[in-house]
Amino acid sequence: MAILTARNVTKKFGGLAAVSDVTFDLHDGEILGLIGPNGSGKTTLVNVVTGALPASAGEVRFDGHALTGLPSHEIGRLGVSRTFQVVKPFRNLTVVQNVMVGALFGAVGGARDLKTARRQAEEILAFVALDHRGDAPADGLNVPERKRMELARALAMRPRVLLLDEVMAGLNPAEIDAAVDLIKRIRDRGVTLLVIEHVMKAIRNLSDRILVLFHGQTLTEGAPADVLNDSRVVAAYLGRRYAEAARA
Amino acid sequence: MLEIQALSAGYGSVQILRDVSLSVGAGEIVTLVGSNGAGKSTLLNTVCGIVRPSGGRVRLDGTDITGRPSEAIVALGITQVPEGRRLFPNMTVRENLILGAYRRRDGHGIARDLAWIFELFPILEQRQRQPAGSLSGGEQQMCAIGRGLMAKPRLLILDELSLGLAPIMLDTLVDALEKVHGEGMTIFLVEQDVATAFDLASTGYVLENGHVVLSGPTKDLRSDPHVKKAYLGL
């Protein structure tokens, strides 16, 4: 069953269509991989779904609600959260305080007082294995820690749908394995995920289905094995060295 | 060309680099790989004069540059393409590129190098009047590399070339850097994507907990069991 549906979503900047007539379903409990070249419209699509940008045309629905036209904080309250590619924490707050912000402004049923928010934030920091850094200032974290704090902040909003925008950029292979494991555990908690990532090992291991964008349009959609072997996807996105490595 | 000898450095009482030695020969591509927190950025900051070492020496073509200020090091011919590009987003692509040449006074040379960069990355020529912040991630990385080359460095340092780039975009950048290398540029590449780093570089160093644990030709490192497991994810 689809928990989130996007129908004919278009986003224009001036005369340029960054996203053009994109339709997809996010099924309850699945992980959908979203790939495509730099500039193909992936982040713009996430921005439209989460209300950060208004759609020029089309409709997004979540669990019976029309999201189109709602401000992003209301979409967050309904249960749709996201992470940002460039992590921008509240630098003068501690890690746990940053996560508390998510808890306080998240979905219905979340914390509405500081004490509960702190307890929920600490719980989530333990879940993402960052509890030992809870009292550190947010700008004192290294790259993998910052990415996990960003995840914790989004999770503290108690989302039913979580959109992840390149949470693995800048991680090494061992750290990527840990992140893949963490994302699977998030799914096991009942969260439906859309994952933007350029790390093919992660996309292959995580995705139930993959959606490919190219110049703002859907190039193809399907099972990972089919999509990653599709010659159009190799030509538009995966490239020569990937194809060589896959053959080897 | 670049010779790092027994370098130690850190922040306050925290020692990050311990006794690191490595060298980059003229015309070579050398890579330094390692996890987050291994000390890669500290090493670059020490080479570029941002962090003062507590011990050891850095030499460029025999000249001791240890502890010199960054502007002196840039003047001697080391340019860094920083992690995350760090372009001026509200300035145009062309302005960002020209800024790379701010120390140069050879107008003809600057024009020639700008034409060369447009040949290397034709998309930058098309987008030269757009603000750099409107470029895609891959185009921004092209612009950052172009800006670095406009300084006409003797040694080009690249920090995290692959960050956030689609595989096919990385192919394009690898091809461009091979061309730049073919014209004689010496390149020092600090990279998290070890497979790509080894595709480009002939020599590699592996940094763990602030010291070099392995080094040698990348074709040998590629088959090293520890490297395969920890860095190539095989």
Summarize the structure.
The complex is a heterodimer of chains A (248) and B (234). Chain A is an alpha/beta fold. Chain A contains nine helices and ten strands.
Main beta sheet strand tally, sense and closure of chain A: 6 strands, mixed
Number of strands of chain B: 10
Give the SSE string of chain A: EEEHEEHEHHHEHEHEEHH
- Helices of chain A, by number, come to 9
Beta-strand content bin of chain B:
25-35%
- As a whole number of angstroms, the C-alpha radius of gyration of chain A is 18 Å
Biggest sheet strand order of chain A reads 6-7-8-3-9-10
Fill in the CATH topology of the largest domain in chain A. Rossmann fold
Q: N- to C-terminal separation of chain A?
A: 38 Å
Task: Determine the mean pLDDT of chain B.
Answer: 91
| Strand order within the widest beta sheet of chain B | 6-7-8-3-9-10
State the CATH architecture of the domain at 1-75 and 188-234 in chain B: 3-Layer(aba) Sandwich
Beta strand % of chain A: 25-35%
What structural class do the secondary elements of chain B suggest? alpha/beta
Q: Domain count of chain A, please report it.
A: 2
Q: Tell me, rounded to a whole number, the average pLDDT of chain A.
A: 93
From the spread of the alpha carbons, the general shape of chain B counts as globular
Q: Given the helix and strand composition of chain A, which structural class is it? A: alpha/beta
Please identify which CATH superfamily of the largest domain in chain A we are dealing with.
Answer: P-loop containing nucleotide triphosphate hydrolases
The N- and C-terminal alpha carbons of chain B lie at a distance of: 34 Å
